[in-house]
Amino acid sequence: MESQIEEKGDYVGPFTAVFGNPTAKVLDQCLIVGNMEQTISMLAESTDLSYKTVLSVVEKFENLGFMTATRKIGNAQAYRFEVKNHLSEFIKCAQNLQVNIITQKKE
């Protein structure tokens, strides 16, 4: 799988590299966008997941306090990752993991 990813040039974040599931893909977006507002459609497009799958993950994250509904953008509900409150230590761990993975690939 790794060679296919490198050939296409797709970014694989640390959570996806370790866990490889839809929840991990959405968490990786947190590393990219920080606390910028995102709609379900935006997250679905950036993760290559279906709208329904992303909606399920966002609902789970909302219940855990990892995401918060912010405002309506047209008819779409926007959400924000709670980076400072609940995800900061998790993100630091993922960033360290990502650095380790990159360092090992260079060796």
Average pLDDT over all residues: 82
Number of helices: 6
Which strands sit side by side, in order, in the main sheet? 1-3-2
The tally of strands reads 3
Question: By helix and strand content, what is the structural category?
Answer: alpha+beta
CATH architecture title: Orthogonal Bundle
Shape label? globular
CATH superfamily: Winged helix-like DNA-binding domain superfamily/Winged helix DNA-binding domain
CATH overall fold name: Arc Repressor Mutant, subunit A
Chain oligomer state: single chain
What series of H and E elements makes up the topology? HHHEHHEEH
Task: List the SSEs and their pairings.
Layout: H1 2-8, H2 14-19, H3 22-33, E1 38-39, H4 40-47, H5 51-64, E2 67-73, E3 76-81, H6 83-106
Antiparallel strand pairs: 1-3, 2-3
Helix pairs in contact: 4-5
Textual characterization of the structure:
- By secondary structure, this protein is α+β, with helices and mostly antiparallel strands.
- The chain has a single domain (2-106), classed as Winged helix-like DNA-binding domain superfamily/Winged helix DNA-binding domain (Arc Repressor Mutant, subunit A).
- The chain has 6 helices and 3 strands; from the N terminus they run H-H-H-E-H-H-E-E-H.
- It has helices at residues 2-8, 14-19, 22-33, 40-47, 51-64, 83-106, and strands spanning 38-39, 67-73, 76-81.
- The chain is globular.
- Residues 1-9 have low confidence and may be disordered.
